[in-house]
Design goal:
Mean pLDDT: 83
Radius of gyration: 17 Å
Number of domains: 1
Shape: globular
Strand order of the largest sheet: 1-2
Structural class: mainly alpha
Low-confidence stretches: 1-28, 34-43
Distance between the termini: 27 Å
Order of helices and strands: EEHHHHHHH
Strand content: under 5%
Largest sheet: 2 strands, antiparallel
Length: 234
């Protein structure tokens, strides 16, 4: 199975879970926890499908799960999916509308007790990913993708997160209309030429951003996120 364990994930210095033979990568983002293959005993229960926490009743927990799941899916696909740079660009473009949406949902759902960390969360922690995703959405729009089609991409990415196969290095996204796919392919070709690869984007290195109140809230209120490494150090 795929085991979380490439770089320090999210808000904590969670324990390394990859073996010493795990592949290495230059992937910098703290939010990405890539995975390596390992031998699992036949008696061990399989990892549940779907990103944990997407159906959490707390809207902050649900949005954060979608955020973590999206960024992890991109990091894992780029590191281990065997995709060409243009194929990865197309995958990142598929994810971008949902990532923009969940970033806004996180900020909107921060409870009053976290108001003091709103700017840190919005601008410094999730902000770099949201800004990159907004650039990707602009590339989609330039290729002729309509607002309704952006909504389609957002909803189908959420569906992909809900059905995530933990053994697959590349998230399986639902098929879309041929016309929309053609626009994505055109946007991906242009995006791939001008954008720093995801794994090499220095703006995504957010390890040093401190938001202790938010970390504590997520650890206390979002138990499903623990499997994604959130709150491990609390």
């Amino acid at each position: 199975m795929w085991v979380l364990g490439l770089v320090t994930l999210m808000i904590s210095a969670c324990a390394e879970s990859a073996t010493s033979s795990a592949p290495t990568t230059s992937l910098p983002p703290a939010e990405v926890h890539a995975e390596s293959t390992s031998t699992v005993a036949d008696t061990e229960a399989p990892e549940p499908s779907g990103v944990p926490g997407l159906d959490a009743p707390d809207p902050l927990c649900a949005a954060w799960a979608a955020y973590v799941g999206t960024v992890q899916a991109l990091g894992i696909a780029e590191s281990f999916g065997g995709l060409s740079s243009e194929q990865f660009a197309a995958l990142e473009l598929r994810a971008a509308p949902r990532l923009v949406d969940v970033a806004a949902e996180i900020v909107a759902s921060l409870p009053p007790e976290l108001a003091g960390e709103r700017t840190v969360v919005n601008e410094q922690r999730i902000g770099p990913y949201a800004r990159r995703a907004k650039s990707a959405v602009e590339a989609l729009t330039a290729a002729g993708v309509t607002p309704d089609e952006l909504d389609t991409l957002s909803s189908t990415w959420q569906t992909a997160l809900l059905g995530r196969d933990p053994n697959a290095p590349v998230l399986s996204v639902p098929p879309i209309a041929a016309g929309l796919q053609a626009k994505i392919d055109a946007a991906a070709a242009a995006y791939d030429r001008v954008v720093t690869p995801f794994a090499q984007d220095p703006s995504l290195v957010v390890d040093g951003v401190k938001m202790p109140l938010t970390v504590a809230y997520l650890a206390a209120h979002c138990p499903d996120l623990a499997s994604s490494g959130v709150g491990d150090a609390i």
